[in-house]
Structure formats: C-alpha cells, structure tokens
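Thought: the user asked what Periplasmic binding protein looks like in 3D. I have the sequence; next I should run the structure tool and report back without guessing.
Action: structure_tool
Action Input:
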Amino acid sequence: MANALAAVTVTDDTGRTVRLSKPAQRIISLAPHTTELIYTIGAGSQLAAVTSYSDYPAEAKRLPIVGDFRQIDLERVLAMKPDLLVVWQGGNPQKQLERLKRAGIPVFYSDPRRLSDIPDNMVKLGILTGHEVAARKKAVQWTQAMNRLKKQYGKRSGVRVFYQVSDSPLFTLNGKHIVNEAISLCGGTNIFADLSIIAPNVSIESVIAKNPEVIVSSKGLGTSNGLSMWKRFKTVDAVRYGNLFGINSDWMDRAGPRMLAGTEMLCKKLEESRKNIRKFH
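Observation:
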C-alpha cells in the first residue's frame, strides 16, 4: 500500500481532476462495475457502501446500500462522511451527484468507453486508494490477457453479429459502445454499428433485413436468454446455422474487470459460429 499520508491526483473519465490530501479510506461506490474495480485492485476493505446490483464479489453484498441508478439516499451518504465517491457518468442521477460535490465530497467519474479504459481505471483508482502498485500489476495482467485474445481471434474470418441487450423491447448497441470493440476484437462485425444512438431500440424487421450470421443475447425476458423468439425466422442465417448464443450479462454489460471473461466467452461463441457456418458451405 502507498504512503497513507501522501496527496494524490488523477484525471477521471470526464477529464475532471480529482485531488485528495491522502488516499481515500472511506469510499462509496455508486455503480456495480466500479465496485468490481475497487475489489480487483485490493481496496475492497475501504468500501463503506454501494448501490443496488453491486453483487460481485460476494463480499460486496454485505455492504450497506445507499441507492440505485435512479436515486441516491443523499442523507445517508452524507452521514457516512465518505472521502471519495466513485460513480458512473451514465448511470447515476447527475443532480444528486452535484449536491454531493457541493458538500465537498471528492467524486471520481468512471465511464469506460474503450477496453483500454478498464485497466486505466484500475490504475487511477489504485492511486486514489493507496493501492497503485497492486493496481498497476492487475492492469498489466488484464491488458496482456486481452491482447492475447486479440492476437488469437482478431484476424479470424468476419461474421455478422446482432448483439441483443434485451428482447422486449428489442435493444442493441452501436459502434461507439465498448461491447462493439469486443465484437471486433473477436473478429465479428456489429450489424448496427452505424446507428447514431449508443443503445438503440430496433425492430425485428430491421434485424431480419440485416440477416446476421450470429445472434448473441446478454439477457432477455423470454426463455433461452431471450433467443427463442428468433427460432421461427428460418431464413435468417443465424437461425439456419444454429448460431443463437447467450452470454453472461454481468460480464459484458458491466464495463469492469470481468469484461475480460466476457470477451473471451464471446470470442469462443463466434469461433463456434464459424464452425457451424462451414457445415453449410
């Protein structure tokens, strides 16, 4: 652990400078992915509270809950006297965060948009919590593992992928989302990469028109992880080839450390899909 009395400074994912007179010892994490990041770098014992859905690792479920992505219990947060809030730019109520900042609580915004932002967040949070050495080690290991996946799968034959975030309503992700980078790293092509909205609502007809060779679902309300609805569309290549795959939503939908496992799982599913496609050619 770094010098507990030394001042620390980092730049968060919004470009804001975060300065602490000494590494934080009483942290509140306001997003599941930031909770995972904090535990990964060895700073879990410094967490005072989390928000709903911060369910990994198991220790996080024993911490007090101070809200969710819709609302923060401001009075409870203030009463806890945290010396650092770690928040998600896109997943916390901004007006409430502004009130907490006005109260003098330092805030680190975590908003990974690229895979490389995840190890970068590890290092920055390591600096803020006094675990810089351990965080840098974890970041290097994570990056090396991701680079191995890129080397192994990045030049495989391309496959057209529909990435389904939910089935009712039907949502996907565009080319600016971090999941798109994972798809590309695995040798896939996101059929809706060119849409302007980062998480667009699409129609079944538009998916059929794009004729994906693979449909990957991270969650759904129906059976088979939201994939069963597609089986009636026999002319869609993904259905013809049997390339309907579920994937762990916590691994892919949270831009945290386990996205490495999610990307590896995705790469293996796309490799399986190539084998299925070859059976038809």
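Thought: the tool returned a structure. Summarizing for the user.
Final Answer: Structure for Periplasmic binding protein predicted. The chain has two domains: 8-142, 155-278. Residues 8-142 form a domain with the Rossmann fold fold (CATH 3.40.50.1980).
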